[in-house]
Amino acid sequence: MIFKDFLDKLLAPAPAILPDEDARLALTALLVRLARSDESYSDTERDRIDRILRSRFQLDSGAAQILREQGEGLEAEAPDTVRFTRAIKDAVPYEDRTGVVETLWQVALADGKRDAEEDALIRLAANLLGVNDVDSAMARKRAESRA
Question: Which domains does the chain have, with CATH numbers?
Fold first, then answer.
């Protein structure tokens, strides 16, 4: 229950915009949830998450690894994806949510193959994040070009 206060804040009926540190943690937990969705959480996916965190948040390797490990803990305690993702939608601006969808695709494509469970989770997450189909498709294309 280490993350109880954070989850309570995130899942409040009217959550405030998350401070950067909390938004980073929520995004990281969502990336971990995606990576775990196919029951195979590989070193390749962990490495991709670390690279995304280093690039997106200008972190060094150690700080990215710590954030990923915190995200793993939060993901394990977070409620179902629907509530968790809707909470992120309410707390994160739209432009950042399209970036979330792109990073989800980057993790999904990390192992070089598309997985039905990962695809389904990304479609669900994009919808729940309020990212329209056009922006979601563009996010996938950007992620594919980086893979």
Answer: 19-146 (1.10.3680.10)
Are residues 102 and 143 in contact, defined by beta-carbon separation less than 8 angstroms?
Answer: yes
pLDDT in tens, 15-63: 566 667 777 888 899 999 999 988 889 899 999 999 999 998 899 999 9
**Strand, helix or coil for residue 40:** coil
Query: What count of other Cβ atoms lies within 10 Å of the Cβ of residue 114?
Result: 12
Tens of pLDDT along 60-83? 999 999 999 999 998 988 777 877
pTM: 0.82
Query: Angle formed by the axes of helices 94-108 and 81-91, to 10°?
Result: 140
Nearest-angstrom CA–CA distance, 144 and 27? 20
Residue 77 and residue 70: Cα distance in Å, rounded?
A: 11
